[in-house]
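sanity check this:
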Amino acid sequence: MPRVTVVIPVYNSATTAAEAIESALAQSYTDREIVAVNDGSTDASAEVLARFAGRIRMVTQSNRGLSAARNAGVRAGAGELLAFLDADDAWLPEFLARTIAALDRDPRCVLAYAQTTVVASDGSALGASIAGGPSRHHPPELGEMLEHLWPIMPSAVVMRRAAFERVGGFCEEFRGLGYEDVYMWLRARELGPFASLAEPLVRWRFSLFPARLKG
């Protein structure tokens, strides 16, 4: 049984999903399975996923939204740890190794997250991060998360399945982008502390930023 289940929700992500999957396959930490959930895509996403047959597990469902797709991927997997990777983002090769090591160092931690580097829609660097400034460079207390929007991106998170199940997974009332992750992290933080890694180990694609806007 793999220790980590990597969940990749895919919805009309034909242009980026292969890069995301390749980055998961290229991890130095190999005790993992990859579950891609095709959430009713109407583009060529299914054909892209088919190219990885035999190397990843695929789940197909009618369009139910991002939260439901992530939850479906978790149900299809068996890992005691869960890693979430959006289909337009990518991991550096040490992402899983570093985040899992952080969880192993402190059994109290329910979740570990890394920093991110922001890239444009074409994948070019924008010279920015989502660190949130020096005041956000530490794992948050629950009170801080209630006062401020904390910079924890889903693609930068590895969490314990036990914690995920205790909070009931991602709330499926959130169908699109926006706050389904914030709500999940708040509920998870009630269960225990987080671990924060200073390294930018994730390439987070801000698709609204064309490459010509980079600094």
Summary: The domain at 4-213 is CATH 3.90.550.10 (Spore Coat Polysaccharide Biosynthesis Protein SpsA; Chain A).
